[in-house]
Design brief:
Blueprint lengths: L1 H11 L3 H4 L3 H22 L30 H28 L4 H10 L19 H14 L1 H20 L2 H7 L11 E4 L15 E5 L2 E11 L7 E9 L13 E8 L5 E5 L11 E10 L4 E2 L4 H36 L1 E2 L2 E2 L4 H29 L5 H25 L11 H8 L7 E2 L3
Parallel strand pairs: 1-4, 2-4
Antiparallel strand pairs: 1-11, 2-3, 3-7, 4-5, 5-8, 6-7, 9-10
Helix pairs in contact: 1-3, 4-6, 6-7, 6-9, 7-9, 9-10, 9-11, 9-12, 10-11, 11-12
Length: 442
């Protein structure tokens, strides 16, 4: 880094750039290179280590079951909704198109998201988190507000919180003491939950990424797809199929099945490749490649419990349902004034039945998406089974979300097809709910 900066400063002192009229661009290049260089050096030098030992794992308290069915957010949730709603409207929405084109979220914006507490919602208060009680509902409300600004940027902001939440929910005392404190500090690490694999008809319960048991722990091999912020992530929680067979194919001892592993990005054998997608491009998605990555036994998260892994998949699907809900709401909020102001044949197009009924259908489907998502999150908070509810919420997010995106494009006619208007991006983003697994968590 030092040699590169010295070369840039040598260029800046040359009279040639003044004669070429390039003084401003070169000085900007030096500033950005210095800033990014020091940031990279700080991340590369981060060593996850336990400052304090914990006698037992810290967990957020389970909220008490409400006596009545009530969707009204409490005072704390309303404050968070307002804060993240303003952030989505004022910071995410204006830069969404540029971030989509660049396939990356601005670093300053991600830092502001951390400062708002996006990484701390699932961390116990005893470890510096923001909430005394665990609340998937609160995470859903926050995710919805951020996605109303932009789904891709929301995914980038929320991705580190998925790792922090996973370790908070299922990590042991040693894992929590080692990995959670940095998520509550300035400069929280980028991180991601990697589940999806690059193959058709992907089933998260039938993984091709393997974790072979060894006398000293595990060896991970495989490839993960569409991992948000993969290029700058310092920590991953990775889903892999535990394989107990030895080198000769003989069955060994120990349980088999999908499980979660904590992997630091600097571990030998971990690399990444760019993989820009159709939607959520601002999340900076890419492939995570694992080549004989050697891990100790302490890397296993949740003790390879099938219940833990199943809950992780369900909570991840709820997170994507929440993002779909926020983006679909953005479509509705955009098309209502558009169809009222857009005139054809001397009157607003909203006077046409086909247009009015389409807008009404969007509003109706949104209510269904909202109710099922909130209900599933509420059951998760109460410790009740929510597999069926999460499946319904995910189905509606996939089916109705895509339909709402398509209707938004159709209502704008030719305008809906061009990038000058945001509905084409929202349509592309809404299709991600049917593809993505993991990456986010409530």
């Amino acid at each position: 880094m030092g040699m590169g900066l010295r070369a840039l400063r040598g260029l800046a002192s040359s009279d040639l750039i003044d004669r070429a009229g390039l003084r401003g661009p070169v000085e900007k290049l030096i500033y950005e290179s210095s800033k990014n260089g020091f940031r990279t050096a700080a991340s590369a030098g981060r060593a996850f280590s336990a400052v304090n030992k914990l006698a037992k794992p810290a967990r957020q308290k389970k909220p008490s079951a409400p006596k009545l069915f009530d969707l009204e957010p409490d005072e704390e949730q309303q404050m968070l909704q307002e804060a993240f709603g303003d952030f989505g409207a004022q910071r995410l929405r204006p830069i969404a198109q540029d971030a989509d084109a660049a396939c990356a979220a601005p670093v300053d914006l991600l830092k502001q998201g951390n400062e708002l507490g996006a990484t701390m919602l699932g961390i116990p208060e005893a470890l510096g988190g923001a909430m005394t009680e665990r609340s998937a509902v609160t995470s859903v409300l926050v995710s919805e507000k951020l996605a109303h600004g932009d789904m891709g940027l929301a995914a980038a902001v929320l991705a580190p919180g998925a790792v922090a939440t996973a370790i908070s929910l299922w990590g042991d005392a040693e894992q929590q003491a080692k990995y959670l404190p940095p998520f509550t500090e300035d400069g929280a690490p980028a991180a991601a939950l990697a589940v999806l694999e690059p193959r058709p008809l992907f089933d998260p319960f039938e993984l091709q990424t393997t974790a072979k048991r060894t006398p000293d722990g595990f060896t991970l091999s495989g490839t993960k797809a569409l991992v948000p912020r993969v290029a700058d992530a310092e920590l991953f929680v990775i889903a892999a199929q535990i394989d107990t067979r030895d080198g000769q194919g003989r069955q060994g001892t120990g349980g088999e099945g999908p499980a979660l592993f904590i992997v630091e990005s600097g571990t030998e054998g971990v690399s990444h490749e760019p993989e820009p997608a159709m939607g959520i491009r601002a999340a900076g998605t890419g492939r995570l490649v694992l080549e004989e990555v050697v891990l100790g036994p302490g890397a296993l998260l949740g003790g390879a419990s099938p219940k833990v892994y199943s809950e992780c998949i369900q909570r991840g699907r709820l997170a994507w349902a929440a993002l779909s809900l926020g983006t679909a709401r953005a479509v509705l909020d955009y098309v209502i004034p558009y169809v009222n102001e857009r005139k054809a044949f001397g009157e607003p197009i909203s006077h046409r039945q086909a247009v009015a009924f389409t807008v009404s259908d969007i509003a109706i489907e949104l209510e269904g998406m909202k109710l099922t998502t909130y209900r599933a999150a509420s059951r998760a908070d109460q410790g009740k089974s929510f597999a069926k509810e999460a499946a319904i919420a995910r189905h509606l997010a996939v089916d109705k979300g895509m339909q709402i995106g398509s209707s938004g494009v159709q209502l704008l006619g030719g305008h809906g097809y061009v990038k000058e208007y945001p509905v084409e991006r929202w349509y592309r983003d809404l299709r991600s709910a049917g593809v993505m697994e993991g990456a986010l968590l409530v």
